[in-house]
Amino acid sequence: MSRPLHRGVSGMQISGSSNDFWDSQVQVQTDKEDLDRNRSSNQSYLSLRFPLRLHFLDNSPSKYGVTENGFASDPFSVGTPRSRHKLTMLFLKLSLVVIVILALTGSFWWTVLISTSTRAHILHGYRRLQEQLVSDLWDVGELSLGPSRLKEIEFCPEESENYVPCFNVSENLALGYSGGNEYDRLCGHGSRQSCLVLPPVNYKIPLRWPTGRDVIWVANVKITGQEVFSSGSLTKRMMMLEEEQISFRSASLMFDGVEDYSHQIAEMIGLRNESNFIQAGVRTMLDVGCGYGSFGAHLFSKQLLTMCIANYESSGSQVQLTLERGLPAMIGSFNSKQLPYPSLSFDMLHCARCGIDWDKKDGIFLIEVDRVLKPGGYFVWTSPLTNVQSFLRNKEKQKRWNFVRDFVESLCWELMSQQDETVVWKKTSKKSCYNSRKADSGPSICSKGQDVESPYYRPLQNCIGGTHSRRWVPIEERATWPSRSNLNKNKLALYGLHSEELNEDTANYKTAVWNYWSLLSPLIFSDHPKRPGDEDPSPPYNMLRNVLDMNAHYGGLNAALLEAGKSVWVMNVVPTSGPNYLPLILDRGYVGVLHDWCESFPTYPRTYDMVHADGLLSLESSQHERCSMLDLFTEIDRLLRPEGWVIIRDTAPLIELARPLTTRLKWDARVIEIESNSNGRLLICQKPFFKRQAS
């Protein structure tokens, strides 16, 4: 968005008579002084915003150079009476020599100044001209290709309303996958969609947090009445409030008992109640097979952050309903591959009748639990298999229980407590425990080559991981939340960072969030776009809930949103194509995942209120176009809820390349300059609410 540059040069007229000569000289001198003052003030302003144009202004006619009409402005060209004294002529000639010498000296020093102090401005301006040329050529190309190039993308058929690429159970079964492997994530070349997913016929915008945590619209998710009334497990219980809504009674003792359940877990660890989890070093939890997120919904009020993972389900999905409630969740499986989280990521792992047979495959699932748990972290398992009275009457159950108990002991886990159907173990805080085990007792320790800190869907390993990490710090020795999010100099050194880098990132995102929030209004799409600082009321603090940061860097957006008091949670995604700071993000007390953005994200359509991408286009464009920008934007559209927001921050040329794609996606969009970065632009978009017609 270029700004017009206004500038003017005063004209100068030389008198034709000797009587007007001195008056003319006084007037010319006054005009020149005014011009100099104007030029000085213009230069001080333009040096801040138009460094290149400042250089162009300095190429204007010199004080003693040539006028606009091309003739010399030497006052001595005017004729004088022959009766003048020779002494006066000599004096004037000497004055002219002095003026010429001063002019040449000034020109020399001005040339030196240009070649040194403003060289950076000239080069920067030259680069901006190149980028503008690229942008103009792109626009010309778009126009030359005509309407076919900007043709809007068609809508997907109705059966794609809840389609998740890379998860096709029926196709996997046809390919011979079985034994749970049919639920694995398999991304092939044909897994991407080239159409826009429409919401269901009766879809409604979700209720704002915290109301939306307890009440959702039944038409927004794919679930049958049979699945509603058969959801009898502890974390799945719910009831129909009306025909159009589902109400979750997670806070009611009469219905769910989640509060009693979480209180029981706290006591088994040795705490007074669940409010003391923070003091015990617990902040982040991985909830496997989370039901519909009631456990995490209750703990959220205690400043605990629970990430739900569950298998892909075509109907009655735990992940889809949990996200619809405004709680963290993603599709994930223990079947055959490691989870896309770094080693030593979570303070607690919870499984309440999660459907995983921990005794199968020689305990390899428990090894994966051990890998993602921080030293001193807790594993909570609730299952009929752990009930003493139950397995005493069933030899098969007793055998399975004995295997799990003995295996986790070989992992150096300590049995904290066992009550009813719930058992709690604590992972060792000391690496020396592994060397003190009996020979051939339990799995071996992974070698450095095997112990990959941040695996990306690697096959499950049968060795103990995380022991080679410099991040091996027991949870009881870590700072408690919220101090955990502000790492000191020594802690940052573990991730190869300096405190100045994190402080700068934090400060930048504080400013960015303030600007973003003031722009999240339909006013930006009017003829007079809203700007930060306008007097219009800002959007409510709870207008957003689920936020996806596609290139999270150090987690700065997450930190800034929380500090600003916004009622959001952020899925911090670290692209596989860039620097990996996901361990840092998780150690700060946030949730996140590693992901390749040339593949579809493991979640259902319409799950995020806002998608943010800072520098992602630059990052992906440097990877030799493994996938197109249109592929990326189509995936964003799938993830975004109707009336959801997209904020893309990148270089001006890339934003100009992206802008035509928003037309094809039917988004409302506007490009906004970044005052602090002349080469940066914001692309602010909103996805319209298109409704499918009832058939």
Automatic annotation (TrEMBL):
Membrane topology category: Single-pass membrane protein; Single-pass type II membrane protein
One GO term describing the cellular component: membrane
GO biological process, one term: methylation
UniProt entry tagged with the keyword DNA repair: no
InterPro entries named among the record's database cross-references: Put_SAM_MeTrfase, SAM-dependent_MTases_sf
Molecular functions (GO terms): methyltransferase activity
Enzyme class: transferase
Transmembrane segments: 90-110
Record's keyword terms, sorted: Glycoprotein, Membrane, Methyltransferase, Signal-anchor, Transferase, Transmembrane, Transmembrane helix
Gene3D superfamilies xrefs: Vaccinia Virus protein VP39
Annotated compartments: Endomembrane system; Membrane
Pfam families the record matches: Methyltransf_29
Top-level lineage group: Eukaryota
Similarity comment text for this entry: Belongs to the methyltransferase superfamily.
The name this protein goes by in its record: Methyltransferase
Source organism of this protein record: Durio zibethinus (Durian)
